[in-house]
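User:
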Amino acid sequence: MSIDKKRIGKILKVTAIGTGVTFLGLNMIAKKNKGDSVFEKEKDQKNPFAGKKVVFVEDESDEENADGVRGHLEAVGETKKSKGIYDRYIKRAIDVVLSFGGLVVLSPIYAGIAIAIKIDDPGPVFFTQKRVGQNKEFFKIHKFRSMKMSTPHDVPTHMLGDPDQYITRVGKFLRKHSLDELPQIWDIFIGNMSVIGPRPALWNQDVLIAEREKYHANDVKPGLTGWAQINGRDELEIPDKAKLDGEYVQKMGLAMDAKVFLGSLHVFSKDDSVVEGGIGEMKKNGIKPVLCRQYTVSKSDEELIGHIGFGERVEVDKDAHKKVLITGAGSYIGESFTAYAKENYPLNFDIEAIDMIDGTWRDCDFSQYDIVYHVAGIAHADVGNVDDDTKEKYYAINTDLAVEVCEKAKNEGVKEFIFMSSMIVYGDSAPYGKSKIVDERTVPNAANFYGDSKLQADVAVRTFADEKFKVLVLRPPMIYGKNSKGNYPTLAKLAKKLPVFPNVDNQRSMLHIDNLCEFLCQIMLVKEVKENAVVLIPQNAEWAKTTDMVREIASVSGKKIKALKIMKPAVSLGGKMPGKIGGLVNKAFGNSCYAHEISIYPGLDYHWVSLKESIERTEGRYVYKTIGNMRQNEKPKALMLASVASMIDQFNMDNISILLDLGYEVHVVADFVDGGTITKERIESLKTRLLEMGVDVFHVAIPRKITAINKIITAYKEVKDLCDANCYRIVHCHSPIGGVVARMAARDIRKKGTKVIYTAHGFHFYDGAPKKNWLMFYPVEKECSRLTDVLITINKEDYNRAKKAFHAKETIYVPGVGVDTDKFSSGLIDIDLKRNELGVEKNQYMFLSVGELSKRKNHEVVIKALSKIETMNYKYFIVGKGELEKYLENLVKDLGLENKVYLLGYRTDVSELCQAADLFIFPSHQEGLPVALMEAIACKTNVICSSIRGNVDLVLDDAYLFDEHNVNNVVDCINALVGSKKREIFLEDNKETVLKNYNHLKQFDLLTVREAMQKMYSEKSGGYNTLS
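Assistant: Predicted structure:
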């Protein structure tokens, strides 16, 4: 079929002419009505504060304004009327185009609405009201009339006694879908408003006007929608609303306006506009005062949040016996807990449940119970379509009943009351694409009457707590398990029926019923709770992703489902759709998480079921032994891994001892053939010591070069096999390649609750490091940090970098591996005897370096420097072994220093050598926090060292630092310190500096490090601790 181009051209021409004529006509009408719209002929209606800076002054003699406060505005200066290019030209052009298009396209809808209004409640179609425009000039805003003719004028809806009685049937529909705002498109076209901007205040909303003045939000045109509207709409408190308006003004531009416009699409679907000019309705959420409970009134943020956690390590008394009353017979949680405790803690609990439906529970004698666990309540409300009677029922059961039970428990001598609150007290999930992570500073703020009914009880029961009556409030996220109700069964049905599912990234906290029950058992058996009222937030060890859950459910159920990233845009669009569609999408793919750290309580270990395992249990295909039996018969396991045996020997024996003391079965993985800087004899001795300690030793040839890809892959497979077979509770890895191998190998078991700890003994990328180090190691370490629960750094430079740029759940600073200052203190040996043993004369200087004979340790710079010092009487000893041994021997010969420089190889008397030395020289290119240097300082020996990360943490005086790349700088440093001084004078001159370094070193003492590591291990063990 041929295209009639002439006909199409004619249609386009007529359309263009028609559009042009319509635009000109509307423009003429707009210009004619502009003056009337801003009260040009009604001077008494103009704002006397237009163009002036204002403040609000409270005055009880004034009438109450639209914000519900008595007071008035006062002028304190003039405002500057300055517009930018975007505001003056671009934004106005967009407004004209969009408003004209809206007027034309929506004209049939306008006509239909006008007719409906006339039929429903005869009178004017439009409703005009005086509002505050740009620079506080008043203008007439237009709306479709949604309220009856008898409604008081210029009174905000939230201040009417009963707003519903004034709203017409058509008006209710218009407000629900924000259609009553459509005539404001004309106010945009005429130039009094913009599409995007702060919502126009009522002329008598003095508090809001004054608050906006602080942020210059009165200086721009008001908008049809704004930044505050998509972040809470009219339910926000006035200061919060004004601050958001100010944020919009500060960021105003094309990108910001586009963001607000898109964000408004789903906000306009909500039935919130009834609260026009609201003053904090988010805390009321449309609930009439007669329905609300007042327990949260006048409470501070701290009181609403509560005391999260026990405040200290607690001890679970496995021999204790408790009698528990569950108030709420037949509940899913109550029955699950009873069955779980009977199976796993048969000797610890006697549990009874009582029905709360009728009033007979009031006759029960609570005094015979140690704990009352209150689970009765109503949940899973359709909060968008509930009458007042139903809301009252929620408050009666969720709030009043909980308070009454708590009061009865206290009056009758019960020692502990546990209340099931909910994550709902923190409001709804964030919509798809937006993050929501609740932490210890997040203030509860219920989004609806259901959440408020739980929050009121949450706050109320805590007020009963005292020394003799402990109150524990639990705020769990969504609880799921076999036969649970709520959202999980719906998701499971979809997983079993759908062939495809969107592959989107979202995060949600969840809690499997077994993890909750284990948590309950442990908190009920805690020996002593010092805080009177405690808020606890149990959750699974890992956050859930909706797509992963659906995949797993389908897999367990023997179904195949494809997760498609191509469906992401559909989810994004669906989340912004009005009505139930947007609500359901955001319910499924929104974000709502608790920060992990607020769910970890030292002394408790309740993360027994991983997400994958929980789905297998829920879908009925998992056979497992009871957790109680596992606890009684098996120790938890910990893996200590390093690339070479020397790193275990020199840096980790203390860590292994701590883990053993904490009750762990410890496995050690390292290269026990090429042991690094220790001899074969030392390796065998190390293995013997470990076996005698009850430690299992595994040889894995972990390479030390990043280019040895095949060897790395082989090591990864071997370590992964160990991880999968043993399901370690803690994996602690060391060294760059070892750290990568271990963290990759532990990915799967980490999902089950394993805590992965990595100690960075000095990143290969550092200030001044070669570019290749940054290119090779930085991206790898940054990516692996995502697989890390605790990243331990041992110097301040690494700590600051990791804290700022990496993704580990927790980054901490521990002062190295520690040094035993008592062991290395000088005066423990006969120094003259040691010097004689080495052939050092009485008046001769003894210089010493300790470290692997490698390029990194940089011994050659000292040898070359000493070759340039001809008159000094010294002997220089280097302790260590390594690949550069032959090279350094030849260098010594070439420089004619055979009688002055000696390579001692591996030694076991390093502390004695340090005490005998006059000067310890440490020229390394790269360190984390060098043990050798710490040991020398601990021996109260003079030290000079390279000015690098780690060294500068230990040596504070720049005079004792040198540039390790510059031989002449090393020469100058030695000459400045020693020069031609006699040995006795040199030692006397430097006593003060030696003592200063020694005192500074005490913060790196072994006991300090040991305490830090024991605390960290205990926290990451989830509380497993056999120490008592």
